[in-house]
């Protein structure tokens, strides 16, 4: 009953708006990674039908780095072309000046979402964005192959490397010469920063920078982590990984050419799609620990919705945001697309758990998830992240040793933050 | 007579005025604005709030030591990458372009069709051709690796665009593929202007073809070739799209334009990014001036 009320309330408000204001067109930017655009369109259409307004969807680049660059150019020119922006969990500090305060529209709604995400989206007491879906890095594995070779799901990176090596060699001998052990996001962009954060954090090396902005990266665990990963490239991981973002890694994985993949939750629903060659052969687990003393980690990701201060229909746009982040819409997206709700209550929902059996274990991943140092860096986050991915890329491509790259990264971060 | 030529000169200025005004508005003004921004600490987060900081974006000293563009190793790396790219790609394009032009200069059946067909790579937008090449160079699904594997040239697929060892070579390859037709076109135009009498004389004297080429053809088309090289070099020094689409966004392959864009847009530092853009402008202006002086190239013959 409560859920029903939660669904009806925003719809009713929307109806009221449509009566008081004439129908307008709201343009909404959403991502197009995997099947995102379809799910985004469906949600927006439902709102449009209920309110009489129309929604124009603007699709944006897959790479988060490029997407932010596009947003910044649109916003810096004061353009009102896009009313509602889908923004990354690390951007509220960067875009704070361009977005309206959603507090008056959200009212008590924020209490229904994960406290940490709402806090992340609040800059200087301004609610920059509403949480839409959350993400954490996950380990995807081929259930069928692990069974065939009689191994369990690895719990440490060393385990993963040896299992991957064994299966890769076995499968290649059996005729699949395209088989690889492990694929991840190794291209020099934001995704590599997430991967690097997971490796370093899982080895107990922290998150590059603590909450107070103190740079913590220069430690033996971080060096060990990067050294380990560099050893995979060319052996269990194709060298091309140095150019892979999310979709390139999924391309290898979903065509059945990888044993393990690191990716976000969206890859689950696509891997289980009717035309997927690996349907019903997939398992999902937390990313491995650095070693016996390491910890399970996963980079905290996720996307929010915010309203541009240049929007000519801010109230209507905010209403669309409230609809899309509502209980009912988040449940629908979890069912059809495997998107993780930002509302803890939905993790107890039986239907959602039936469609996404791994959500249960994910709940723990979210509590262990490592946040990128966006809060401490504020508007300088991009510069910091750029240093992190460049240093990591140099180690993975063996242009630099981890022993040299990590202290150099520390110095670069000090420079970037001055 | 003097009155007439002055009237002609005035008419020339009147006809040129709209073009000059447009040029000042769309090229001059943004350029001046960029120069100005490079002396400020403007940020894209709020373009109206800027402070004049003099030459601090270029060189300054604070408690951490020296800073600014002139001591930024990333900037010098970008300058180095751009120069290497320019020298390699323009040299290869000039050689291949000249070879193609010499072939197309001969009479053979279907020559006009081939001349048109060869322009296709140049007509495709760089973004599109770079993406096509990105797929052809892909380490797992790319046709290049597949062909080389089946021919036994390599045993492992090579990550052409992703690995820093081969990324620059891949960029040069794509650029050469794309721009050789342009060079060929300019060379061909020069070849067709050549007087035929000295070739007939050479044929009568029995001079070998290679000697004819180096002693007659090359010196005669040199002025046109020098201008073509300038056109290409100016283009190559501004290179952005092929690098941005084809390779990972690292320092290993970053050009000056990619560097400037990164600071302007991704880091929101309009001030620092403008300083990089200004420096890029200076580098290009300087190299062009050097080339024109050392090569004694006359861009236009002055009748007076």
From TrEMBL, chain A:
Membrane-spanning intervals of the chain: none
Taxonomic lineage from the root: Bacteria, Pseudomonadati, Pseudomonadota, Alphaproteobacteria, Rhodospirillales
Protein name stated in the entry: ABC transporter substrate-binding protein
Similarity comment text for this entry: Belongs to the bacterial solute-binding protein 1 family.
The keyword Transport is annotated on this UniProt entry: yes
Biological source species: Elstera cyanobacteriorum
Signal peptide: 1-23
Top-level taxon of the source organism: Bacteria
InterPro entries assigned: Bact_solute-bd_prot1, SBP
Cellular localization per UniProt: Periplasm
KW Membrane (keyword) present: no
One GO cellular component term noted in the UniProt record for this chain: periplasmic space
Stored Pfam families: SBP_bac_1 (PF01547)
Sorted UniProt keywords: Signal, Transport
From TrEMBL, chain B:
Localization (cell): Cell membrane
Predominant location category: membrane
Gene3D superfamilies noted in UniProt: MetI-like
Membrane topology label: Multi-pass membrane protein
GO annotation, biological process: transmembrane transport
Membrane-spanning ranges: 12-32, 78-104, 116-136, 167-191, 212-234, 272-294
GO CC, alphabetical: plasma membrane
Superkingdom of this protein's organism: Bacteria
UniProt keywords, alphabetically: Cell membrane, Membrane, Transmembrane, Transmembrane helix, Transport
Keyword Membrane assigned: yes
Domain ABC transmembrane type-1: 79-293
Pfam families the record matches: BPD_transp_1
Family label: Belongs to the binding-protein-dependent transport system permease family.
Protein name according to UniProt: ABC transporter permease
Organism: Elstera cyanobacteriorum
